[in-house]
Write a structure and sequence with these properties.
The protein has 432 residues and is of the alpha/beta class. Helix content is 47%, strand content 16%. The chain contains 16 helices and six strands.
Length: 432
């Protein structure tokens, strides 16, 4: 029976409004990985629902094509909402936790009314009463976003919450970072409670997680030149990366829970919506939960060594990772090296794109003149977020060509090697 591993590297696009969308997709990947584990170890777990359907699919591949396929999602990267879901999926894969509790998290707890900072709530019923008719007009005018995207039975609730939101505090982040961090911490705990504790990858296999964050104040990096010999520039990109082998420490999982909370909270700290993440917020969470963060120093020294060296860790302010890196292909490519292979491997990069149809202008479409605010918001937010991934795909294609060339060279040499071994020993050691 021919055996093959399908290894998946997920790259999750950023965008805070896409949290539920990304959760649905990553949950399907989780179901597929669970089905693959059960397919290869049928006595260990019983499946139902979607995972059972995926297992039947793998059985059909074996029956019809003589191929026993194992699916291993082992590299997960993301930014913003994609980063949050990459964190959850990586922990579930590595430690055998469940993603089921997250559906309730996104649909119930991640609500405007639950995340709003208490200080940002309207002070009284008639606060900013003059804004009420303006909000009502925007929410009820023909072609408004609520009527176009929200089901009829929930439109009244959405309009009520948006109206209350508009009448709240202005010119300060409306959402509470501490509430968000607490919600993430609670979600990771419920994942562990509902999981079966059985990792979805083989023992000793590495799981890589990388999310992007933006260091608002930046940190100095040294450039080696000719003249002058070196200069310093300010770097604002701050990747938060984890690597752990399955089975090393099931009690901890991929990393300490607070470190995963920090990564998820930082990568989704959308400017203007949430306050920048500071280390004090995570320390307060640890104190409130009675959680001893034993690896704090080692973790900070790894992800922000310059700040640790300069003693500026307490001044670090992290904002949304998609500000600078919205589709972290580079981190996924870096994680490819040093992975074991005992059978044929098919590597696939899976890019979770919320707009696969593209957002270009159709030929012949009349376009309006770019307005004042449109130009500002487009240059600061929309255009940087929607940069094409062509350069990243070309890097992957180049790496694939190099791997194919090396394989071809090795295979071409095999005949000569077989003849040389047979001439020396009378038989061939190399096996196909």
């Amino acid at each position: 029976m021919r055996q093959k591993e399908l290894r998946l590297a997920l790259v999750c696009y950023g965008g805070v409004s896409l949290a539920v969308y990304m959760h649905g997709i990553t949950k399907e990947v989780w179901h597929l990985a669970r089905a693959s584990r059960a397919f290869h170890h049928p006595s260990e777990v019983t499946l139902g629902g979607v995972a059972a359907a995926y297992r039947e699919f793998l059985e059909a591949i074996e029956r019809d094509h003589g191929l026993k396929l194992r699916v291993l999602p082992d590299i997960l990267t993301g930014a913003s909402a994609g980063g949050i879901n990459a964190v959850f999926l990586a922990q579930a894969i590595h430690a055998g936790h469940s993603l089921e509790p997250l559906t309730d998290l996104w649909l119930e707890n991640a609500d405007v009314s639950k995340l709003t900072d208490p200080d940002a709530e309207p002070m009284w019923r008639y606060a900013k009463f003059w804004a009420q008719p303006i909000a009502e007009w925007f929410l009820r005018r023909p072609g408004n976003a609520v009527s176009a995207t929200v089901s009829p039975e929930t439109r009244a609730e959405v309009r009520r919450k948006v109206s209350r939101f508009v009448r709240g505090r202005w010119f300060s982040p409306p959402f509470s970072g501490e509430r968000f961090s607490g919600m993430l911490f609670e979600a990771l705990g419920k994942m562990a409670e509902d999981g079966d504790g059985m990792p979805l990858l083989p023992p000793g296999y590495p799981v890589d997680l990388a999310v992007t964050a933006t260091d608002f104040r930046g940190h100095p990096e040294t450039l080696r030149l000719n003249s002058p010999p070196q200069v310093e520039e300010t770097e604002h990109r701050l990747p938060i990366c984890f690597r752990a082998r399955v089975g090393n420490d099931p009690a901890i999982g991929l990393a300490d829970r607070l470190e995963l909370v920090l990564a998820a909270r930082a990568t989704a700290s959308f400017p203007g919506a949430f306050p920048p993440l500071t280390l004090a917020e995570i320390d307060h969470l640890a104190e409130a939960e009675g959680h001893h963060w034993a690896s704090r120093g080692a973790f900070l020294g790894r992800i922000m060594p310059t700040h640790v060296e300069r003693g500026t860790v307490d001044d670090v302010a992290l904002i949304d990772g998609s500000v600078l890196v919205n589709a972290p292909f580079g981190a996924a490519l870096t994680a490819l090296h040093g992975r074991p292979a005992q059978r044929e491997v098919d590597r696939r990069f899976v890019y979770l794109d919320p707009r696969p149809d593209g957002g270009g202008i159709d030929p012949g479409t009349r376009t309006r003149e770019v307005g004042f605010f449109g130009a500002i918001f487009g240059s600061l937010s929309t255009i940087p977020r929607e940069q094409p991934i062509r350069d990243d795909l070309e890097r992957i294609a180049m790496q694939s060509r190099d791997a194919a060339r090396q394989k071809r060279i090795v295979m071409d040499l095999q005949t000569d090697i077989d003849l040389a071994v047979e001439k020396l020993f009378g038989y061939t050691f190399l096996l196909d």
